[in-house]
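Entry 12.
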Amino acid sequence: MEVIGTAEYQSATRRAEKLEAVPLFAIPVAWLVLREDGVAAAAMATTSDGAFCGVFDLAVRPEFRRRGLAQRMIGAAAHWAAAHGATQLFAQVAATNTASRALQSGLGMLEQYRYRYFLRG
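Predicted 3D structure (tokens):
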């Protein structure tokens, strides 16, 4: 697996934990990679839990941005999750990620709530 991007708040330790967690999932989960001209241009994780499709860690290489790849990724995740019974989609996004929030708003998604992580310091 090639990591092409990750959320700015995640440490190397947290990224390693995510890779190790794969066998622990009790619900269907998929990692999607979109290739353009043989290059991994975008990637994300998605889950399906009952009626809900979750979208996480969407990343697009800078040189491939503003081409609709993120929208295609979310569409692919929704299609995959629908095959598992999902009828609704949610995205987990940092409040400061204005590009992702604009994308989701453009797709008709609405902010439902916010939460914070507290780490020992």
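Annotation: The two ends are 31 Å apart (CA to CA). The CA atoms of residues 27 and 91 lie 17 Å apart.
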